[in-house]
């Protein structure tokens, strides 16, 4: 009998020891992550004010912790339920809303977006209007270009004004991937029209409330009660109220806890009878968006993230940062929020490694896909010569002349609103042409002269060179990124 008792004690000890070791490893891992975060908070530049972490494993939120100051001036510490600006993470809610409306039969993802808009519609320019579909806007393949605009007052950011001024297609729909906030801003109008309620109201009723995401709200003016103060990158300067020109692209606020609830729902594969299976909204593929990466409904999809598939969304404005990574095969998710700009993919990876040892081991030998190599190709003879046309702005056309020689050298001039500007850095690669107009004045309302350059990119479409002219902030400026159509023909 005594031998049996001893054997039982030994057996229990052998079972308990691995669990104890696992708990010790987990505690040590958290300490290592805390050390990383402490270093971020103490760094002189940018010295992120605060950062919040949430980790989901299986059906449990296994770690939530907040660090630093949600409000530096008033010395208010954040908590896991403090709302943070999540910027482009908003797109995953928009993508889910579209999927819901499609399932409800209220929208056709392959239908023309203009069929769902009122009197303010997207202009097809040189291309087929029916090809500007909801699906392509969702995939960033509709032919829109770079766009980012916030306003100090509501009027300049009214959706109808934004569509009228900037809703023009600059390349063939379906031709290639080009990340455009404007597309998701337009999709917010589609959601509002199809659902007969505002975009914010729809996502609140259909996503936030059912999942208990009490700390999530869509705020067009950037004000949220009890939210973390946003600070400009590298400063202690708080950001005041800002109206978003594209609420469905970048105007949500959420806490780390609420995003953890969201991730947990997406990881839950088995739903009770009659209940929604949220995991069906996790994409497994999408359109090609870069080496080893696809895009679908607001998510970036990695089919090989250290040997398994993963979806993620991240946002990095100058005054806020948010990341969420979901690994379905491991029933695992990480959320990181900060109230200053910065990308924390490396910290997300570090947390994954601490909580998922098998991924940590595979990472030692795993190599991510190399970045896309851009090489100058021989110039196409079709584009050699002189071209004349204009940048088509809502304030009128700004005449542009280009000269392209057989070696690929590109020169040109723009007759701006106040002066003539010469092209710099011009070049050609295959059938494509590019260059910059430094400090060009397009006469637009959204940015003052001298605060931006204009970057150009064209390609041959039939007898025309066509493409984009995009404003780019000069050093020290906060000028928005706005794109306009350019058309050029031979004289």
Secondary-structure topology with pairs:
Layout lengths: L1 H41 L7 E8 L2 E9 L15 E4 L2 H14 L30 H6 L10 E2 L7 H8 L14 H15 L3 H10 L8 E2 L24 E2 L2 H4 L1 E3 L1 H12 L19 E4 L2 E4 L2 E7 L2 E10 L2 E8 L4 E7 L6 H11 L1 H7 L21 E9 L2 E9 L5 E6 L4 E3 L1 E6 L2 E6 L14 E10 L2 E10 L9 E7 L2
Antiparallel strand pairs: 1-2, 1-13, 3-7, 4-6, 5-7, 8-9, 9-10, 10-11, 11-12, 12-13, 14-15, 14-22, 15-16, 16-17, 18-19, 19-20, 20-21, 21-22
Helix pairs in contact: 1-9, 2-5, 2-6, 9-10
Helix content: 25-40%
Largest sheet: 9 strands, antiparallel
Q: Report the radius of gyration as a whole number of Å.
A: 25 Å
Structural class comes to alpha+beta
Domains, number: 2
Outline type: globular
Reported by name, the CATH topology of the largest domain is Beta-lactamase
Low-confidence spans? 1-20
DSSP summary: helix tally = 10
**C-alpha termini separation:** 105 Å
Provide mean pLDDT, rounded. 91
| Spatial strand order of the main sheet | 17-16-15-14-22-21-20-19-18
Number of strands: 22
From the coordinates shown, what is the CATH architecture of the largest domain? Answer: 3-Layer(aba) Sandwich
CATH class of the largest domain: Alpha Beta
- Beta content: 25-35%
The CATH homology group name of the largest domain: DD-peptidase/beta-lactamase superfamily
């Amino acid at each position: 009998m005594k031998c049996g008792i001893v054997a039982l004690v030994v057996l229990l000890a052998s079972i308990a020891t691995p669990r104890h070791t696992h708990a010790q490893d987990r505690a040590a891992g958290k300490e290592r992550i805390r050390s990383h975060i402490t270093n971020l908070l103490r760094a002189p530049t940018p010295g992120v004010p605060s950062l919040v972490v949430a980790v989901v494993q299986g059906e449990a939120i296994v770690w939530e912790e907040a660090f630093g100051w949600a409000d530096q001036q008033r010395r208010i510490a954040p908590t896991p339920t403090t709302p943070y600006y999540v910027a482009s993470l908003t797109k995953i809610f928009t993508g889910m809303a579209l999927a819901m409306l499609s399932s409800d039969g209220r929208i056709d993802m392959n239908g023309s977006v203009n069929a769902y808009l009122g009197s303010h519609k997207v202009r097809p320019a040189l291309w087929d209007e029916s090809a500007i579909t909801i699906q392509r806007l969702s995939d960033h393949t509709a032919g829109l270009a770079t766009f980012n605009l916030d306003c100090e007052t509501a009027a300049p950011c009214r959706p109808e004004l934004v569509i009228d001024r900037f809703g023009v297609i600059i390349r063939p729909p379906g031709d290639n991937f080009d990340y455009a906030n404007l597309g998701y801003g337009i999709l917010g109008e589609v959601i509002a029209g199809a659902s007969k309620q505002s975009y914010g109201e729809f996502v609140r009723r259909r996503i936030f409330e059912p999942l208990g995401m009490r700390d999530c709200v869509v705020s067009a003016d950037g004000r949220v009660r009890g939210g973390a103060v946003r600070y400009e990158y590298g400063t202690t300067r708080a950001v005041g109220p800002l109206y978003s020109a594209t609420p469905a692209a970048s105007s949500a606020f959420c806490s780390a806890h609420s995003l953890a609830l969201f991730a947990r729902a997406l990881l839950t594969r088995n739903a009770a009878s009659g209940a929604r299976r949220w995991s069906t909204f996790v994409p497994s593929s999408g359109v090609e968006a870069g080496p080893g990466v696809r895009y679908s409904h607001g998510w970036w999809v990695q089919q090989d993230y250290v040997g398994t598939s993963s979806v993620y969304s991240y946002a990095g404005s100058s005054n806020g940062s948010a990341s969420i990574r979901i690994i379905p095969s491991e029933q695992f998710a990480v959320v990181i929020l900060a109230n200053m700009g910065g990308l924390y993919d490396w910290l997300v990876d570090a947390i994954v490694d601490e909580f998922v040892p098998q991924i940590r081991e595979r990472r030692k030998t795993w190599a991510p896909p190399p970045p896309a190599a851009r090489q100058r190709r021989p110039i196409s003879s079709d584009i050699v010569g002189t071209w004349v046309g204009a940048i088509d702005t809502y304030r009128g056309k700004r005449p542009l002349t280009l000269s392209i020689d057989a070696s690929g050298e590109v020169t040109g001039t723009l007759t701006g609103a106040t002066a003539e500007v010469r092209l710099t850095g011009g070049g050609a690669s295959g059938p494509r042409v590019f260059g910059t107009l430094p400090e060009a004045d397009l006469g637009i309302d959204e940015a003052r002269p001298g605060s931006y350059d204009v970057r150009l990119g064209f390609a041959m479409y039939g007898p025309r060179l066509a493409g984009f002219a995009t404003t780019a902030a000069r050093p020290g400026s906060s000028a928005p990124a706005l794109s306009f159509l350019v058309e050029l023909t031979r004289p």
